[in-house]
Design brief:
single chain; alpha/beta; Amidase signature (AS) enzymes; two-stranded antiparallel ribbon; 13 strands; 13% strand; globular; AS_sf
Length: 511
């Protein structure tokens, strides 16, 4: 059974930060083990298993142990899989008998807690309403990951209902999981809604995780936690078995410490790469030489922080030094945000009801969840309410002209702006800061976002990848590369070339 966690009070934050860096009750043996796995890549884990130095059980046990020791200071993991070691042992036997299935054979992966698993773990979206809900089967992306030989290690905490309940929410807080903290400074926020998925990878609690995004929920926590996150083209990864917000924007995507690891995970999750081309082959000859990158100068929050301006300029300089041509552009998308808001409200009401009913969940509609929250307000809504839920409940059906017009408007504006900018300037990708410095977690006032660039790719359904680009006062800043539909492989190649040229990822506590 999952045990609900409570929000830690600010007075405890400093203690939590110390726990993260000290890894709790460490010993010389534990320290050596942590150093051995710290920042390790999928390829390095595979090489160790091929060489007989490690097996999947060793790797799985290490991460389960590290979660137990370190996660009390971060609160990234809602639940670990009680069958993880048994799955790892079976994969080790298979490796010995027939060889590995592929590059992810025996590799542990954490899933965001809004992704179905047909096993002993619950699928909750962080809500106490679903605390005992077990999905009837795996999400299609989970089936694909199991087929690739991964070990599903556990479920990550998130902003409850993927941050669509209230305008005053604290990212990374759920009534079931409590508050996830940023491992670079646990007084600060990890962004969301894939908060635990990002923080777990950043803090080396796992090598790979899966997040989901409607608008910013992969790239913002990835950037804020100093890792790589990919929001793929809508449709590259199946939406099956993901507790939804909006089918016109929802997608799962990989989170990792390196671009190659993220590409390996996305390749396994993808329905088909026929339209994108091989995500892994794109890495083979990745280069910035001859690439044309458009820097979007009018991103939301542009000029809000000189430190972010400096990080962006440093990224531009690195790209130019590696042979890219960087040009300034602007994207004008007035009206897209208002259209998106209408779409999200309408689709939340319809899509959530469809999921709950099809999955046999204990509540069958948004209206029933609203009633549950009201009846359990002391535990479900101690910090903020559910005004977005209530706005969505007041909307009509998906045949309402207000909805259909908003959907068409948002896509027309954002797709038109991105595609015309790429075409007019002969660009390979667009570039903007992913995030500003992580803000102090504030359960009274909620989030205080300052900088973000996710909405263009989110509303259009186009791909977006964030890569570590530097730090402001020790807090990670990412840059986002985005482009037109099915340009995922090309963007991954550019991101990889940038990563290899700069090597700016740094784990928490390392300087």
């Amino acid at each position: 059974m999952i045990r609900p966690r409570t929000l830690h009070q600010p007075a405890l934050v400093a203690t939590a930060c110390a726990l993260v860096l000290a890894a709790c009750a460490s010993t010389p043996d534990v320290d050596r083990q942590d150093r051995r796995f710290n920042e390790i890549t999928v390829d390095e884990l595979q090489a160790a298993m091929t060489g007989g130095e490690l097996d999947s059980v060793d790797i799985t046990r290490h991460y389960l142990d590290r979660i137990e020791r370190v996660d009390p200071g971060i609160n990234a993991i809602i639940e670990t899989n009680p069958d993880a070691e048994a799955i790892a042992a079976a994969l080790d036997r298979e490796r010995a008998e027939t060889g590995p299935r592929g590059p992810l054979h025996g590799i542990p992966v954490v899933l965001k807690a809004n992704i179905d698993t047909g096993d002993a773990m619950a699928t909750t979206a962080g809500s106490l309403a679903l605390v005992e809900f077990r999905a009837p089967d795996d999400a299609q992306l989970v089936t694909r990951l199991r087929d690739a030989g991964v070990v599903i290690l556990g479920k990550a905490n998130l902003s409850e209902w993927a941050n669509i309940r209230s305008t005053r929410s604290s990212s990374g807080w759920s009534s079931l999981g409590g508050q996830t903290r940023n491992p670079y400074d646990t007084a600060r926020n990890p962004c969301g809604s894939s908060s635990g998925s990002a923080a777990a990878v950043a803090a080396n609690l796992v090598v790979l995780s899966v997040g989901t995004e409607t608008d910013g929920s992969i790239v913002c926590p990835a950037g804020t936690n100093g890792i790589v996150g990919i929001k793929p083209t809508l449709g590259l990864v199946s939406q099956d078995g993901i507790i939804p917000i909006a089918h016109s924007q929802d997608t799962a995507g990989p989170m990792a410490r390196t671009v190659r690891d993220a590409a390996l995970l996305l390749d396994a999750m993808a329905i088909s790469t026929e339209q994108t081309g091989s995500l892994l082959d794109a890495l083979e000859d990745a280069t910035l030489e001859g690439k044309r990158i458009g820097v979007v100068r009018n991103y939301p929050g542009a000029g809000a922080h000189p430190g972010v301006d400096a990080v962006l300029q440093s990224a531009i300089s690195a790209m130019e030094a590696a042979g890219a041509t960087v040009v300034d552009i602007e994207l004008h998308t007035d009206g897209a945000g208002a259209a998106e808001w209408e779409v999200l409200l309408y689709e939340l009401k319809a899509d959530l009801a469809t999921y709950l009913q099809d999955a046999g969940a204990p509540y069958a509609s948004l209206e029933e969840l609203i009633a549950f929250n009201k009846a359990n307000a002391d535990t479900v809504m101690p910090l903020f309410g559910q005004e977005i839920f209530e706005l969505a409940q007041a909307k009509g059906d998906l045949d309402d002209p207000t909805y259909t017009e908003a959907l068409a408007t948002g896509r027309r504006i954002t797709r038109g702006a991105i595609d015309s900018a790429l075409d007019a300037n002969d660009l390979d990708a667009l570039l903007a800061p992913t995030n500003g410095p992580a803000w102090l977690t504030d359960p009274v006032n909620g989030d205080t976002f300052s900088i973000g660039s996710s909405s263009w790719a989110a509303i259009s359904g186009y791909p977006n990848i964030t890569v570590p680009a530097g730090f402001v006062s020790g807090l990670p800043i990412g840059v986002s590369l985005f482009g037109t539909a099915w340009s995922d492989a090309g963007l991954i190649a550019i991101a990889y070339a940038f990563e290899q040229a700069t090597q700016l990822r740094r784990p928490p506590g390392d300087g």
